[in-house]
Design a protein that fits this description.
heterodimer, A: alpha+beta, Mth169, Chain: A, three-stranded antiparallel beta sheet, 31% strand, elongated, B: alpha/beta, Rossmann fold, two-stranded antiparallel ribbon, 6 helices, 11 strands, 26% helix, globular
Chain lengths: 85, 221
Protein backbone atom coordinates (compact mmCIF):
# COMPACT_ATOMS: atom_id res chain seq x y z
CA UNK A 1 0.00 0.00 0.00
CA UNK A 2 1.23 3.44 -0.88
CA UNK A 3 0.16 6.34 1.23
CA UNK A 4 0.50 9.98 0.41
CA UNK A 5 1.28 12.79 2.73
CA UNK A 6 1.64 16.49 2.13
CA UNK A 7 3.97 18.63 4.13
CA UNK A 8 3.31 22.37 4.16
CA UNK A 9 6.30 24.46 5.14
CA UNK A 10 5.60 28.08 6.02
CA UNK A 11 7.62 30.89 7.51
CA UNK A 12 6.88 31.49 11.17
CA UNK A 13 4.69 34.50 11.89
CA UNK A 14 6.86 37.57 12.32
CA UNK A 15 9.64 36.26 10.09
CA UNK A 16 10.08 38.72 7.24
CA UNK A 17 9.01 37.19 3.92
CA UNK A 18 10.48 39.32 1.12
CA UNK A 19 9.20 36.86 -1.48
CA UNK A 20 5.63 37.10 -0.19
CA UNK A 21 5.93 40.88 -0.20
CA UNK A 22 7.13 40.91 -3.81
CA UNK A 23 4.21 38.68 -4.84
CA UNK A 24 1.87 41.02 -2.98
CA UNK A 25 3.19 44.03 -4.90
CA UNK A 26 3.02 42.17 -8.20
CA UNK A 27 -0.62 41.19 -7.63
CA UNK A 28 -1.49 44.79 -6.82
CA UNK A 29 0.39 45.85 -9.93
CA UNK A 30 -1.93 43.60 -11.94
CA UNK A 31 -4.87 45.49 -10.52
CA UNK A 32 -6.06 43.01 -7.88
CA UNK A 33 -7.47 44.89 -4.90
CA UNK A 34 -8.12 43.86 -1.34
CA UNK A 35 -4.99 41.81 -0.74
CA UNK A 36 -4.16 42.14 2.94
CA UNK A 37 -1.01 40.05 2.93
CA UNK A 38 0.89 37.33 1.09
CA UNK A 39 3.14 34.68 2.64
CA UNK A 40 4.98 32.21 0.41
CA UNK A 41 5.72 28.66 1.50
CA UNK A 42 6.47 25.20 0.15
CA UNK A 43 4.40 22.11 -0.46
CA UNK A 44 6.26 18.79 -0.36
CA UNK A 45 4.40 15.63 -1.41
CA UNK A 46 5.60 12.32 -0.03
CA UNK A 47 4.68 8.88 -1.25
CA UNK A 48 5.14 6.47 1.62
CA UNK A 49 4.73 2.84 2.53
CA UNK A 50 1.93 2.41 5.04
CA UNK A 51 4.46 1.34 7.64
CA UNK A 52 5.64 4.95 7.93
CA UNK A 53 4.16 6.45 11.07
CA UNK A 54 3.05 10.01 11.79
CA UNK A 55 6.02 10.23 14.11
CA UNK A 56 8.35 9.29 11.25
CA UNK A 57 6.95 12.07 9.05
CA UNK A 58 7.29 14.57 11.86
CA UNK A 59 10.91 13.48 12.32
CA UNK A 60 11.51 14.03 8.58
CA UNK A 61 10.14 17.55 8.94
CA UNK A 62 12.25 18.38 11.95
CA UNK A 63 15.45 16.90 10.56
CA UNK A 64 15.29 18.15 7.00
CA UNK A 65 12.09 19.36 5.38
CA UNK A 66 11.66 22.44 7.58
CA UNK A 67 14.22 24.65 9.27
CA UNK A 68 12.44 25.01 12.60
CA UNK A 69 14.48 28.12 13.41
CA UNK A 70 12.41 30.08 10.88
CA UNK A 71 9.73 27.73 9.56
CA UNK A 72 6.62 25.92 10.76
CA UNK A 73 5.34 22.75 9.17
CA UNK A 74 1.97 21.03 8.92
CA UNK A 75 1.43 17.44 7.84
CA UNK A 76 -1.64 16.28 5.94
CA UNK A 77 -2.13 12.58 5.31
CA UNK A 78 -4.11 11.81 2.20
CA UNK A 79 -6.41 8.84 1.81
CA UNK A 80 -4.60 5.56 1.30
CA UNK A 81 -4.98 4.04 -2.12
CA UNK A 82 -3.85 0.79 -3.72
CA UNK A 83 -0.22 0.36 -4.72
CA UNK A 84 -0.92 1.71 -8.22
CA UNK A 85 0.15 5.20 -7.36
CA UNK B 1 49.16 24.25 8.48
CA UNK B 2 47.16 21.07 7.97
CA UNK B 3 43.89 22.17 6.39
CA UNK B 4 40.99 20.52 4.59
CA UNK B 5 38.49 22.05 2.19
CA UNK B 6 35.17 20.23 1.95
CA UNK B 7 33.81 19.88 -1.59
CA UNK B 8 30.09 19.40 -2.25
CA UNK B 9 28.40 18.99 -5.62
CA UNK B 10 27.80 22.61 -6.59
CA UNK B 11 30.62 24.14 -4.52
CA UNK B 12 32.33 26.78 -6.64
CA UNK B 13 34.71 28.56 -4.27
CA UNK B 14 36.50 25.42 -3.14
CA UNK B 15 39.46 26.03 -5.40
CA UNK B 16 39.68 29.74 -4.50
CA UNK B 17 39.71 28.82 -0.83
CA UNK B 18 42.37 26.16 -1.41
CA UNK B 19 44.55 28.62 -3.36
CA UNK B 20 44.20 31.23 -0.61
CA UNK B 21 45.21 28.71 2.07
CA UNK B 22 48.13 27.49 -0.01
CA UNK B 23 49.28 31.02 -0.86
CA UNK B 24 49.31 32.11 2.76
CA UNK B 25 50.48 28.91 4.47
CA UNK B 26 52.68 27.42 1.76
CA UNK B 27 50.86 24.13 2.02
CA UNK B 28 47.96 22.95 -0.12
CA UNK B 29 44.92 21.82 1.85
CA UNK B 30 43.39 18.38 1.39
CA UNK B 31 40.22 18.43 -0.69
CA UNK B 32 37.63 16.23 1.01
CA UNK B 33 34.56 15.01 -0.89
CA UNK B 34 31.13 15.31 0.71
CA UNK B 35 30.52 11.57 0.46
CA UNK B 36 33.60 10.69 2.52
CA UNK B 37 33.04 9.49 6.06
CA UNK B 38 36.28 10.58 7.65
CA UNK B 39 38.39 13.71 7.77
CA UNK B 40 42.19 13.56 7.55
CA UNK B 41 43.78 13.26 10.99
CA UNK B 42 45.31 16.20 12.84
CA UNK B 43 43.57 19.05 11.03
CA UNK B 44 44.27 22.65 12.06
CA UNK B 45 41.43 23.99 9.91
CA UNK B 46 38.32 22.75 8.15
CA UNK B 47 37.14 25.18 5.47
CA UNK B 48 33.65 25.00 3.99
CA UNK B 49 33.50 26.88 0.70
CA UNK B 50 30.94 29.01 -1.05
CA UNK B 51 28.86 27.94 -3.99
CA UNK B 52 25.48 26.40 -4.56
CA UNK B 53 25.79 22.99 -2.90
CA UNK B 54 23.13 20.59 -4.19
CA UNK B 55 21.72 23.42 -6.30
CA UNK B 56 20.43 25.18 -3.16
CA UNK B 57 17.58 22.65 -3.23
CA UNK B 58 15.06 22.93 -0.37
CA UNK B 59 17.07 25.68 1.38
CA UNK B 60 20.60 26.94 0.82
CA UNK B 61 22.93 24.56 2.65
CA UNK B 62 20.16 22.19 3.79
CA UNK B 63 21.29 19.15 1.82
CA UNK B 64 25.00 19.70 2.39
CA UNK B 65 24.42 19.98 6.14
CA UNK B 66 23.01 16.43 6.11
CA UNK B 67 25.78 14.95 3.95
CA UNK B 68 27.99 12.19 5.30
CA UNK B 69 31.14 14.28 5.78
CA UNK B 70 29.26 16.86 7.84
CA UNK B 71 28.81 14.34 10.65
CA UNK B 72 32.61 14.21 10.89
CA UNK B 73 32.82 18.03 10.66
CA UNK B 74 30.32 18.48 13.50
CA UNK B 75 32.22 15.95 15.60
CA UNK B 76 35.54 17.71 14.91
CA UNK B 77 34.02 21.12 15.68
CA UNK B 78 32.72 19.79 18.99
CA UNK B 79 36.26 18.69 19.81
CA UNK B 80 37.52 22.20 19.10
CA UNK B 81 38.93 21.91 15.58
CA UNK B 82 38.63 25.34 13.89
CA UNK B 83 35.97 25.49 11.17
CA UNK B 84 35.59 28.39 8.72
CA UNK B 85 32.46 28.56 6.55
CA UNK B 86 32.28 31.18 3.82
CA UNK B 87 29.03 32.18 2.09
CA UNK B 88 27.33 28.85 1.28
CA UNK B 89 29.66 27.49 3.97
CA UNK B 90 28.02 29.85 6.51
CA UNK B 91 24.59 28.65 5.36
CA UNK B 92 25.72 25.03 5.78
CA UNK B 93 27.02 25.72 9.31
CA UNK B 94 23.67 27.18 10.41
CA UNK B 95 21.76 24.31 8.79
CA UNK B 96 24.06 21.84 10.54
CA UNK B 97 23.34 23.51 13.88
CA UNK B 98 26.95 24.58 14.47
CA UNK B 99 25.84 28.22 14.42
CA UNK B 100 22.46 29.61 15.53
CA UNK B 101 19.95 31.39 13.32
CA UNK B 102 19.34 31.11 9.59
CA UNK B 103 20.33 32.84 6.37
CA UNK B 104 17.26 33.88 4.42
CA UNK B 105 16.61 35.45 1.04
CA UNK B 106 18.16 38.94 0.79
CA UNK B 107 15.71 41.63 1.89
CA UNK B 108 15.74 43.21 -1.56
CA UNK B 109 15.29 39.78 -3.22
CA UNK B 110 18.23 40.48 -5.51
CA UNK B 111 21.48 38.59 -5.73
CA UNK B 112 24.07 40.96 -4.25
CA UNK B 113 27.51 40.89 -5.87
CA UNK B 114 29.78 43.74 -4.82
CA UNK B 115 32.53 44.78 -2.43
CA UNK B 116 31.16 45.86 0.92
CA UNK B 117 32.45 47.66 3.99
CA UNK B 118 32.74 45.66 7.21
CA UNK B 119 33.62 46.44 10.80
CA UNK B 120 35.50 43.77 12.74
CA UNK B 121 33.61 43.56 16.03
CA UNK B 122 35.54 40.76 17.68
CA UNK B 123 39.27 40.76 17.02
CA UNK B 124 40.08 38.25 19.75
CA UNK B 125 38.95 35.19 17.82
CA UNK B 126 41.43 32.84 16.13
CA UNK B 127 40.09 34.03 12.77
CA UNK B 128 40.13 37.78 13.33
CA UNK B 129 43.26 38.28 15.44
CA UNK B 130 45.12 40.11 12.67
CA UNK B 131 42.55 42.89 12.60
CA UNK B 132 42.37 45.53 15.30
CA UNK B 133 39.14 45.83 17.27
CA UNK B 134 36.73 47.99 15.30
CA UNK B 135 38.91 47.77 12.18
CA UNK B 136 37.06 48.73 9.01
CA UNK B 137 37.83 46.47 6.08
CA UNK B 138 36.30 45.71 2.70
CA UNK B 139 35.55 42.28 1.25
CA UNK B 140 33.53 41.02 -1.71
CA UNK B 141 30.12 39.45 -1.20
CA UNK B 142 28.17 37.41 -3.75
CA UNK B 143 25.00 35.85 -2.43
CA UNK B 144 21.24 35.57 -2.72
CA UNK B 145 20.58 34.23 0.77
CA UNK B 146 22.69 36.27 3.16
CA UNK B 147 19.96 37.81 5.27
CA UNK B 148 20.91 36.62 8.76
CA UNK B 149 17.94 36.16 11.06
CA UNK B 150 17.54 34.74 14.56
CA UNK B 151 14.95 35.20 17.29
CA UNK B 152 15.33 38.10 19.72
CA UNK B 153 16.66 35.93 22.56
CA UNK B 154 19.34 34.42 20.30
CA UNK B 155 20.38 37.84 18.99
CA UNK B 156 20.68 39.15 22.53
CA UNK B 157 22.77 36.14 23.54
CA UNK B 158 25.20 36.29 20.62
CA UNK B 159 25.60 40.05 21.01
CA UNK B 160 26.13 39.71 24.77
CA UNK B 161 28.74 37.02 24.26
CA UNK B 162 30.62 39.09 21.67
CA UNK B 163 30.08 36.47 19.02
CA UNK B 164 29.43 38.87 16.14
CA UNK B 165 32.77 38.70 14.35
CA UNK B 166 31.95 41.33 11.77
CA UNK B 167 29.14 43.62 10.73
CA UNK B 168 28.24 45.33 7.45
CA UNK B 169 28.81 49.07 7.66
CA UNK B 170 26.02 49.71 5.14
CA UNK B 171 22.80 48.07 4.02
CA UNK B 172 23.60 44.85 2.14
CA UNK B 173 20.99 42.15 2.60
CA UNK B 174 18.75 43.01 5.53
CA UNK B 175 20.63 40.94 8.13
CA UNK B 176 19.54 41.38 11.73
CA UNK B 177 21.98 43.75 13.47
CA UNK B 178 23.87 43.88 10.13
CA UNK B 179 25.57 40.60 11.08
CA UNK B 180 28.05 39.48 8.42
CA UNK B 181 30.11 36.99 10.40
CA UNK B 182 29.27 34.94 13.47
CA UNK B 183 31.25 32.80 15.93
CA UNK B 184 30.04 29.81 17.92
CA UNK B 185 30.14 29.90 21.74
CA UNK B 186 33.59 28.28 21.94
CA UNK B 187 34.97 30.57 19.24
CA UNK B 188 36.34 27.78 17.02
CA UNK B 189 33.64 28.04 14.35
CA UNK B 190 33.23 31.14 12.16
CA UNK B 191 30.57 31.58 9.50
CA UNK B 192 30.77 34.64 7.25
CA UNK B 193 29.00 35.77 4.10
CA UNK B 194 31.89 37.91 2.71
CA UNK B 195 34.65 36.10 0.82
CA UNK B 196 38.10 36.55 2.39
CA UNK B 197 39.57 34.16 -0.21
CA UNK B 198 38.70 36.68 -2.94
CA UNK B 199 40.85 39.37 -1.34
CA UNK B 200 44.22 37.71 -0.94
CA UNK B 201 46.49 38.62 -3.85
CA UNK B 202 47.60 41.99 -5.25
CA UNK B 203 45.71 41.19 -8.44
CA UNK B 204 42.49 40.97 -6.43
CA UNK B 205 42.83 44.69 -5.78
CA UNK B 206 42.28 44.16 -2.06
CA UNK B 207 44.16 42.04 0.46
CA UNK B 208 41.93 42.48 3.51
CA UNK B 209 40.97 38.81 3.33
CA UNK B 210 44.58 37.70 3.40
CA UNK B 211 44.96 38.96 6.95
CA UNK B 212 42.28 36.56 8.16
CA UNK B 213 44.33 33.61 6.90
CA UNK B 214 47.62 35.12 8.09
CA UNK B 215 46.27 35.81 11.56
CA UNK B 216 44.91 32.30 11.82
CA UNK B 217 48.16 30.79 10.57
CA UNK B 218 50.23 32.74 13.10
CA UNK B 219 48.19 31.12 15.88
CA UNK B 220 48.29 27.53 14.69
CA UNK B 221 51.84 27.23 13.35
Amino acid sequence: MIMKARVFVTLKPGVLDPQGRAIHHALEGLGFDGIEGVRAGKLIELELADTVSDGDIEAMCRKLLANVVIENFAIERLSTGSGQS
Amino acid sequence: MNAAVIVFPGSNCDRDLAVAIRTVSGRAPRMVWHGDTDLPAGLDLIAIPGGFSYGDYLRSGAMAARSRIMRAVVEAADKGVPVLGVCNGFQILTEAGLLPGALMRNAGLSFVCKTVGLRVENSRSIFTSAYGAGAEITLPVAHHDGNYQADAATLERIEGEGRVAMRYTGQVNGSANAIAGLLNAKGNVLGMMPHPERAVETAHGNQDGRRLFEGFLSLVD
